[in-house]
Write a structure and sequence with these properties.
The protein is of the alpha/beta class. The chain contains 15 helices and 10 strands. The radius of gyration is 23 Å and the shape is globular. The termini are far apart.
Length: 338
């Protein structure tokens, strides 16, 4: 028969107290939406380096092929956080009160090589050697109301021709746009440098310009979540942004500023490779991941001016409800804005 002494009871009571304080509260499980683009690396880095774990978050990544389906998944609760371009679908869902932008991510900055305007070799040979020559030409986009749609119209606006004179071709997924451009089924596209670079090294695609010449300080992607999270789970949102911000800092140090050692950069690239270009061996994926990485805003700072410009464009095209306001779209309580 087993008997308890006071000493035994005290030890067991202490052990029980430790177990209660350290293990009784399980980490919050969250789903994070990503696209297979290097610009989605900060959350991958944060997960791999334990930054989310330190915030008591257990992360599962859900992959998407375009921005709009990710917004729908956030609205439905299948995904908790996303980091991608503002789409018409996202804005319409914000108007319904189910989604909020809570931070900034990828942004065009003057000192960093940004998104390229590229054309098929066939179009280039036919005289499309500058963005001004895109009048009357086809331009690949994923979906109507996507960032690609916005960029195409900003080119038309600045070059002084009617938006309807750039013929948009919705192809749903980035790989489909790439295939159509390389085969000459579409004339033009615009994309981040780590995708544009490898394309223009081949014989089928030529660079003719850059988006920075057409859009000032473009807030290319934003961080967003459900309104239910933003209004009812503020601490969860803050913990996610805290972990993400550390991932952003490492991403910029490794791939943009290159202030890390080569050994540390290689380790970061290996983390990213688990989700980005994972269908390729690391020796082929490594240069693609590193090539032309663009800056992600430190601490997820958000450019309100750029978001507002995008919102007004969506309204001008009749792609979102006319009455939607910035207050409905953006919750400014979580990060610094400018």
């Amino acid at each position: 028969m087993f008997s308890f002494s006071r000493r035994t009871f005290g030890v067991l009571a202490f052990a029980g107290a430790v177990a209660f304080t350290t293990g009784a509260f399980a980490a919050d499980k969250i789903n994070v939406g990503i696209l297979s683009l290097t610009s989605h690396s900060p959350s991958i880095i944060a997960e791999a380096k334990g930054y989310f774990t330190e915030q008591d978050l257990e992360v599962e990544f859900i992959s998407f092929q375009a921005a709009q389906p990710m917004a729908v998944a956030i609205a439905s609760g299948d995904v908790d956080f996303g980091m991608t371009a503002i789409s018409g679908g996202l804005i319409s869902l914000a108007d319904k009160g189910v989604i909020k932008i809570i931070g900034g991510a990828l942004q065009e900055t003057p000192e960093i090589e940004g998104q390229k305007i590229i054309v098929s070799k066939a179009a280039h040979d036919a005289g499309v050697t500058t963005p001004a020559a895109l009048k009357g030409r086809s331009f690949g986009i994923t979906t109507t109301g996507s960032s690609f749609h916005y960029m195409a119209h900003k080119i038309a606006d600045k070059e002084g021709f009617d938006r309807a004179e750039i013929h948009l071709k919705p192809l749903q997924k980035v790989p489909a746009v790439i295939a159509a451009l390389k085969s000459g089924q579409i004339d033009a596209w615009s994309i981040v440098p780590n995708i544009a670079g490898p394309l223009t090294k081949g014989p089928e695609v030529v660079e003719i310009g850059k988006i920075a010449d057409y859009i000032d300080n473009y807030q290319v992607t934003t961080v967003f979540t459900s309104t239910a999270n933003a209004e009812g789970k503020q601490e969860l949102v803050k913990r996610f942004l805290a972990g993400l911000s550390r991932g952003i800092a490492d991403y910029n140090a490794a791939l943009v500023d290159k202030s890390m050692s080569e050994e540390d950069i290689a380790a970061i690239v290996a983390m990213i490779h688990k989700y980005i270009y994972s269908d390729q061996p690391i020796d082929k994926a490594d240069p693609r991941i590193r090539a032309g990485a663009m800056r992600i805003n430190e601490n997820a700072v958000l450019s309100l001016a750029s978001v507002e410009d995008q919102l007004e464009w969506f309204k001008s095209e009749g792609l979102v409800p006319e009455g939607i306001t910035m207050d409905k779209l953006v919750d400014t309580s979580f990060v610094e804005t400018r």
